[in-house]
Structure formats: C-alpha cells, structure tokens
Amino acid sequence: MTARIIDGKAFAADVRAQVAEGVAQVAREAGRKPGLAVVLVGEDPASAVYVRSKGKATVAAGMESIEHRLPADTTQDMLERLVDQLNADPAVDGILVQLPLPGHLDESAIITRIDPDKDVDGFHPVNAGRLATGLPGFVPCTPYGCLLLLRDVLGDLSGKDAVVIGRSNIVGKPMAQLLIGDSCTVTVAHSRTRDLPAVVKRADIVVAAVGRAKMVKPDWIKPGATLIDVGINRTDEGLVGDIDPACADVAGAMTPVPGGVGPMTIAVLLRNTLVSAARREGITLAKPI
Ligand SMILES: Nc1nc2c(c(=O)[nH]1)N[C@@H](CN(C=O)c1ccc(C(=O)N[C@@H](CCC(=O)O)C(=O)O)cc1)CN2
C-alpha cells in the first residue's frame, strides 16, 4: 500500500479563506476588525519566523495584528504587566505569547496571567479544564488542526483506536481529549510505555508528538492506518518528523513534514481569534468553522 499524503498546506489555506469570510462578517456587524496580539521575547530564530508568519497571516485574513517584540532580558514583572495591558485592551480579542520563553521566565505563570477568554492558544488551565469537561473554550491550535485533518480524511472517527505518542500539555493531552470527544478509544503513550511498537500496531490513528526524528517505524504500523506527524526535528537531512517516511508503504494516509500539521497551527490560531471576536461582540458566525 502507498499512503495518501495529506496536504496540510492546502487544507490550511482553505481554513484561512473561511476565516477571512468570518472576519468580514465581524467587521461589517461590529464596525471593527478582530485583533490578535502576539508577544515575542528574545531572539530565538525559529520563534521569530513563526511570529512573522502569524503577523502576515493575521493581516491577510483581514484582522489587526499587534506585535510586541521584547528583549531577551525582559523580566517576569515587565511581561506580566504587558499581559495585563493586553487583557484590558478592548481592541485585542486574542493574546499569544510565543513559546518557548527564555529560561529565566516562568512560562506557566505567564500563561495563567492571560485572560482565559482571550487565550487563543488554549494553553490556560481554565481552557484545559473546559476541554476536559466538554465545555466551550479555546482548544490548542496544533491538536485541533490534527483533528480537522483526521475528520477530513476519515469522516466519522467514532470507535476508532487512536494512539497519541507524547503527553505534553500543548499537544499530547489536548489531542487525547479531542479524540475522546470524537468517540475514539484513546491510548496515550510516553517514554515509560512498555512495548510501544505493539501499542502502536493496534491503532487505526497514530498521532506522534515526541520530538524524536523518524522514531515511528514501518513495522509498528497497522496496514491502512492514518498517521499524523506533529514532530518538527531539524537534522542534517533537513526538517524531519517523528514518523519515518517509509511508513507510507504501510499506512493508508499520512501527513508529511513539512507541509502537514505545521500550516494548520496558524490557520487554527486565526480561527480561534475570529471565534473570540465574534463571542465578545455577540455575533453568530454565518458559517461556523
Ligand atoms: N504560543 C505558542 N508557541 C508555540 C506554538 C503555539 O502553537 N503557540 N507552536 C510551536 C511553533 N509554531 C507556532 O507558534 C509553529 C510551528 C510550525 C509551523 C509550521 O508551519 N511548520 C512548517 C515548517 C516550517 C519550518 O521550516 O520550520 C511545517 O511543518 O510545514 C507553524 C507554527 C511552538 N511554539
């Protein structure tokens, strides 16, 4: 079997076009554009690229982009004061602090400082709790992007066996919650999991988010399974995912790296910002995304 390669770039472009339609509706009805504030601390090159892409995509969708670039020696107090200011700003519908933060800053305290109703990253513990209990809230962008791709490829996910490899707060745990929400039978595997190949072999759906280049091997894969690769590993061979591309010989469908899950992250961020603006203005979107 040769897997269908899932074109995340094209799917993300479609989501962004739908967001632009929603943004136009909000602008018409509220008389203002939705606003996304992005905060970058320090000079991490990859983070700078992601923040630039977010700014461009925000403007392309018709929204207001507010960027704050702070030096690497920014203190906890300075950053918290900026978050407070953005929380209070009526023109700001979404706040995102680009991660990772420099080591001297307390990431968890900063995330918790963001107003949960402007937390378009979905990282605030209140939004994690809302997701876990099935209440409306913001869902982290990368896992929600994975879910949209899975629904597009497989349709109804109910009853599927899903294995999520990785238990981070940002990807693994919310991914598991989303799959449970779509009635999958979910296993979360991690560094202490015994016989990982055998666990993966049972799965109809595999989501790999561990940050280890090409860790998932073809002989681990159930024939026809759908594979979602969240890994972005910079190696001598270039950018590679957590799933060995040779798995395409066994899988039914899989995401490439690059061009799979990555582009969905920014598309869902725009979607979350639109949803926030619509909620804050009491607008029902004509076409919910
Ligand atoms: N506050 C946040 N910080 C970080 C997040 C996040 O969702 N919120 N996620 C990642 C970085 N990230 C967005 O911020 C991101 C990562 C990757 C991509 C992407 O499109 N990747 C491309 C490859 C691009 C490359 O060459 O590096 C792909 O996979 O095709 C977009 C956004 C960590 N921080």
From TrEMBL:
Domain Tetrahydrofolate dehydrogenase/cyclohydrolase catalytic, chain residue ranges per copy: 6-121
Domain Tetrahydrofolate dehydrogenase/cyclohydrolase NAD(P)-binding: 140-279
HAMAP family in the record: THF_DHG_CYH
Quaternary context: Homodimer.
Protein name: Bifunctional protein FolD
Catalytic activity: (6R)-5,10-methylene-5,6,7,8-tetrahydrofolate + NADP(+) = (6R)-5,10-methenyltetrahydrofolate + NADPH; (6R)-5,10-methenyltetrahydrofolate + H2O = (6R)-10-formyltetrahydrofolate + H(+)
Pfam families named in the record: THF_DHG_CYH (PF00763), THF_DHG_CYH_C (PF02882)
Family membership: Belongs to the tetrahydrofolate dehydrogenase/cyclohydrolase family.
Pathway: One-carbon metabolism; tetrahydrofolate interconversion
Protein's job: Catalyzes the oxidation of 5,10-methylenetetrahydrofolate to 5,10-methenyltetrahydrofolate and then the hydrolysis of 5,10-methenyltetrahydrofolate to 10-formyltetrahydrofolate.
Matching InterPro entries: Aminoacid_DH-like_N_sf, NAD(P)-bd_dom_sf, THF_DH/CycHdrlase, THF_DH/CycHdrlase_cat_dom, THF_DH/CycHdrlase_CS, THF_DH/CycHdrlase_NAD-bd_dom
Keywords: Amino-acid biosynthesis, Histidine biosynthesis, Hydrolase, Methionine biosynthesis, Multifunctional enzyme, NADP, One-carbon metabolism, Oxidoreductase, Purine biosynthesis
Enzyme nomenclature, EC number: 1.5.1.5, 3.5.4.9
Taxonomic source organism: Sphingomonas olei
Binding-site residues for NADP(+), renumbered to this chain: G166, R167, S168, I232
This protein's record includes keyword Repeat: no
The keyword Amino-acid biosynthesis is annotated on this UniProt entry: yes
PANTHER family in the cross-refs: C-1-TETRAHYDROFOLATE SYNTHASE, CYTOPLASMIC, C-1-TETRAHYDROFOLATE SYNTHASE, CYTOPLASMIC-RELATED
